[in-house]
Amino acid sequence: MKYLLRICMALLMLGLVTACDPDDSEVTFLPSADEYNADFVLEWMDLSLKLTKETAGFTPPVSARMFGYVGLALYESVRPGIPNALSMAGQVVGLEASVLPEIDPNLDYHWLLVANAAMGHIVKACYAPASEINRFAVSSLEQKYEEQYRTKVSAAIHKRSVDYGRAVAAAIANYANSDGQEFCYQTNFPASFVVPTGVGYWVPTPPAFQKIPLQPLWGKVRTFYPNNADVSKVPMPPTFSTDKTSPFYQQALEVFATVNNLNAEQRTIAEYWSDDPGKTFTPPGHSISITRQVLAAEEAKLDKAAEAFARVGMGVHDAFVACWNAKFTHNLLRPVSYINQHMDPNWKTLLTTPPFPEYTSGHSTQSGATAQILSDLFGYNYAFTDRAHKDRTDIDGSPRKFNTFFEFANEAAISRLYGGIHYRAGNEQGILQGIQVGKNISLLKFRDK
């Protein structure tokens, strides 16, 4: 109805006014961003997930950061075309309105061209170390949609839209680099880091016994929501003890017994949610995949997709910062280390223990944040089917059905217990930590309602 009304207005004005742009041959009233479908954005996110899997150094924290800036660039590029939309400038940490380009309100923009140009620029920037063939894939996808939409508008509108999209993405790329992590994919294991030592502290784990933990300073990286790591702190973990009656021993015993008696469904769950970097699009990529699937099922418009990817992207980034803050505050040893020392020296986990402290669980934290954000966007009783791993043959990647987003988050969390790499407290507190992170992200105002 809104689109038809605008067409009628254009027809009435033909013969009364001339086009505002001297290069345009007719009056043009293009749809606002909320009137376009988001199919092409979903294709861009599919490519981003592929690049996350195939680009060296894209560990979970690094990947989460990239998703945050990609989503933010997408949203800010189309924001002027969304009725009543508000900028994240002045809301997220360190982003000032003065660095973002502005549209000319008297001229038309084709918002699909704008978003496509923005995605092409920001994906190239965020995945700078991608292989030559993958960088070519980025350029090809951008060119595909630029050519497809070129015939829809005049040359002037086409150029204006592409230039604006690239300018917004360039501004967001510069903003991203200002957090000091431009080359974080090269510094996953900083040799200069001195590993803390003490009773119950993290020690390198089998089989690789990686001496330097992954991104040990990540807990200090800039968040999007102000102080999101600090305001999402978790309580102390159970006190370390070797006393067989202590809560700490009992939680380790639970891991030991669970792994030793896994049933088929528990094994499937552990492997399904493992999301190992290099083999998959990582845990934050799984959250982006779920978001993409929901948007596809909803046949979402461009405005909804841009907001969803921005919220979830910023949410998983903040979740990893908050989680890593906890990990390197408490420096808790992993179940395999405790069990090998105090229960069974030959015991092995189902999944490979990642090289960093236990408390809290990164899977749990980022899943809790995603569940909170998606529930706020789509509802607290939203049922969906996750098909993220339907094409995998190395595990049972059969689609999994959930009645709510929190069901998926809880399953992702418990999978780490089944895999033998987290205690229950790390999972449960991780979920709660992520929920708080997600609630904070949901406080960001995207619309002036």
Automatic annotation (TrEMBL):
Keywords: Signal. The keyword Flavoprotein does not apply. InterPro entries: PAP2/HPO_sf, V-haloperoxidase. Gene3D superfamilies: 1.10.606.20. Residues 1-19 form the signal peptide. This is Phosphoesterase PA-phosphatase related protein. It comes from Haliscomenobacter hydrossis (strain ATCC 27775 / DSM 1100 / LMG 10767 / O).
